[in-house]
Amino acid sequence: MSSDSTKDGTVEITHKTIGPSRPSRIRVASHIKVRDLRNAIAEKGRFPVANLRMILRGKALQDEEDGDDLYVTLKDEDSLIVAVIPKRPVGVETYDDDDDDDDELKFQLPPSTSRWKRKLYYFLRNKLKLPDIILMGLFSLSLKMWVIIILWFILAPIAHRWDLGPIFILGTGFSIILLNLGKRQPGDVSAYSIFNEDFRELPGTYNADRIDRDIRAGHI
């Protein structure tokens, strides 16, 4: 390693793009995020960063693993192979289309997800191999809902021990109904006239009064 690079913590590496192009040299930090290295090479070569793939010492470089950014340690005169995946022509379908559709259907965490939840997600998906439908159910619930579910499982054996199982189940059902009724905005009308002011009914409600009016009008 040269003295200049030792002082400022940078190295000069060579990157060779697959195809009829000459190798280029670029100076970067000796210990750098793979994502930053990709952006630096894409900026210098004016490559689309999304289509850029890099190979160092026979290994393809990945930006992240289990939600954490990956770093790479470089040395002077390291050689990097760069491949630019061509964009698919408009209107041309390939065999990869089905894979792309499958990727879109897979459950993905929103970008605002906390670090601990992201780590847990990658552990369950990559280590325990849980299917996406289960991951979707686990991570779609709020912390408040998880507390309620855990509390329910704690109270269920107690209710069973005191022979209150049926009442506990009925109470759970009514609680679910009441908690999911929602709130009506001013001016909204309920589908049930008993909850409306002056027992006002929705237009088109078919009840005894409507049948009586149809009979008197000769519609029936």
Automatic annotation (TrEMBL):
Domain (Ubiquitin-like): residue spans on this chain: 11-72
Transmembrane domains' residue ranges: 133-158, 164-182
Taxonomic superkingdom: Eukaryota
Keywords carried by this UniProt record: Membrane, Transmembrane, Transmembrane helix
Gene3D superfamilies: Phosphatidylinositol 3-kinase Catalytic Subunit, Chain A, domain 1
InterPro entries assigned to the protein according to its UniProt record, in alphabetical order: SAYSD1, SAYSvFN_dom, Ubiquitin-like_dom, Ubiquitin-like_domsf
PROSITE patterns in alphabetical order: UBIQUITIN_2
Protein name per its UniProtKB record: Ubiquitin-like domain-containing protein
Species: Noccaea caerulescens
